[in-house]
Amino acid sequence: MHSAVLKHLCTTLLSTALIFGFAAAPVHAQAAAAKPAYQPTPAQQALVDDLEQRTFRWFWDSADPTTGMVPDHYPGESFSSIAAVGFGLTAYGIGVERGYITREQAVARTLATLKFFHDAPQNASEDDAAGYHGFFYHFLDMQTGKREGRWTELSSVDTTLLLGGVLFAQSYYDRATPEEEQIRALADAIYRAVEWPWMQARPPLISMGWTPGGKFIPADWKGYNEGKLVYILALGSPTHPVDPVAWKAWSSTNDTTWGSFYGQTFLNFAPLFGHQYTESWVDFRGIRDDWNRKHNLDYFENGRRATYSQRNYAIANPGGWTGYGKNVWGLTASNGPGGFVVKSAQGEKKFQGYTARGAGLDYISDDGTIAPTAAGGSIAFAPEIAIPALAEMKQRYGKHIYDRYGFVDAFNPSFHTQTTLRTGKLVPDLGWVDTEQLGIDQGPILLMIENWRSGFVW
């Protein structure tokens, strides 16, 4: 088993234990327990194997081999998502281990990507930069690598997800060859260049982002969410670390969303992606901060409970949406039919396009849109319910939602209105079905399948 980025991130967490109370099991003990006990049926295992390879192919086929840019969505024209690049860099290592590509192919693609980001212009201009102070813009042009438009922000969390892949590459490519030595050096330089304290517009919290003209986004990473990885990498920076009090500030509101929701007591964050992004790279089993110890669970267990809660919510189906049940569920950030209000004898139904769907104590956003990544990204937490869900969705809806690159981003069996759609299509007797995949939704499927299978990324 290759522990990859786990070695780096767990070292960071363990080092901060002396400062603000993390307790952690030995890294080797966690790695040894990586694969859950659940054993799928042969048909289910065949589906997982097929899904993993197809999802990998999405990253390999969609990325620009010269720049390394990975599109936000594909097929179709798209700008690059730097978070998708982070998942892609990790995907290439999985591809090597699973035999989809050679190590030489992965080295060439990874090296091209890291060179591009390392050399990309960093300055305060509106249009002639890829980033500033070591951070990168959320969306970049696929060819030039510069800011896609003035509407996109310098993003702290998306830079962090990019770094998840960068640091994976630094750890995975460990051979004494000129190319792999260069990968390690470039990855180290990219991480060291990020000036985390500069992004603390309202210390000790870290801002969600910045735009040229000195305009920090008036919102910080505070409260349980995908921001875990932001603070972990900021705390562990060898060059520009933030004070450990930042973690306490981030987690200071945890008790406000702690409670029971559909049969599970956990730290709520409605969309499942908030439980999956950091966990794609970090195995939190046995790692606890002060808040974890007071509530007798770690963040991995919290993700498991969140997954069960969503399934229970779908079984109860308070919105009366078509198709929901014990094996058809999953709310997270995803595409959707669009902003429509449909009236019928039963009342109004409101639908949305891309949004962060979810169900929890913090909020409920549910329009009947099911995203397979919600279950796929939770395979490592709860394979005994996630794998049957993926199998049932594929069996029930077949080729309409499962194509060359695995599951489409989302589908909605409750939407049948004939109208002009921004994304997706209407399928007779099924409903709205997307026609593309999103990088930030493909990533958790691929990484968490491999973490469940072998603990490789961890």
Overview of this structure, please?
It is a single chain. This protein has 458 residues and is α+β, with helices and mostly antiparallel strands. The protein has 2 domains: 5-310 and 439-453, Glycosyltransferase (Alpha/alpha barrel), CATH 1.50.10; 311-378 and 396-436, no CATH class. Helices cover 41% and strands 14% of the residues. The chain is built from 15 helices and 24 strands. The chain has helices spanning 5-20, 27-32, 42-62, 82-98, 103-119, 156-172, 178-192, 228-236, 245-250, 273-276, 290-295, 299-316, 372-376, 383-397, 439-453, and strands at residues 23-24, 73-74, 80-81, 131-132, 135-137, 139-140, 154-155, 209-211, 215-216, 258-261, 264-267, 287-288, 333-334, 340-344, 347-351, 355-356, 358-359, 364-365, 402-403, 406-407, 411-412, 425-427, 431-433, 437-438. The strands form 10 sheets. A 5-stranded antiparallel sheet has the order 4-5-7-8-9. Strands 21-23-22 form a 3-stranded antiparallel sheet, with no helix packed on it. A two-stranded antiparallel sheet has the order 1-12. The N and C termini lie close together (9 Å).
